Amino acid sequence: MAELIRIYEENPNPREIKRVVEALKDGALIIYPTDTVYGLGCDITNNAALERIAQLRGVKLEKANFSFICENLSNLSDYVRQIDNRTFKILKRNLPGPYTFILPGNSNLPAVFRKKKTVGIRIPDNNICRALVSGLGNPIVSTSIRDDDEVLEYTTDPELILEKWDNLVEIVIDGGYGDNIPSTVIDLTTTEPEVIREGKGSIEIL
After folding, report:
1. How many CA atoms lie within 13 Å of 172's alpha carbon, on the beta-carbon side?
2. Which is it for the CA torsion 26, 107, 120, 74, positive or negative?
3. Which one of 67, 109, 191, 196 is separated from 46 by 20 to 30 angstroms, measured CA to CA?
């Protein structure tokens, strides 16, 4: 049974953040709010948790296109190869924000992702998930929770999310109603930036 933990985005309770961080370190899967849709995530350093997320998504872990949720741009060099000034300026102008930027991965990627040449980086404009990453000390690997309903692509109500995911994850964070528009995905590894998916973030930034 998943635990529903209420955390307020304006001023996340440090005690509750610590509880979730400790659970992540123990291999928990969590569902948490971002500045777009609710995400399903785990500690990037926990292979067993990564395998569980891949299984839930029905994909092979080494081929999965999961995002790395970071606290700020200072985390970039941990997993991303050196980038040029133009790319850095695009990131600096638009993060935190509702974007996933595809960047060149480096040799420090966790072993399961070592064969991947690129990595999707997210720095959401949401205090809860950034506080979790800060407490954890490394990124959260994340994927959005899609809905099987033909009309609703993304569930926005934390209590309905809890009903659906109750036996699949350890924690659902209630950070209020989520959005139902995902992040805009932009590939910055090509000569010119390429929009892979248009979502909540404006593509006028390019």
Report:
1. 25
2. positive
3. 196
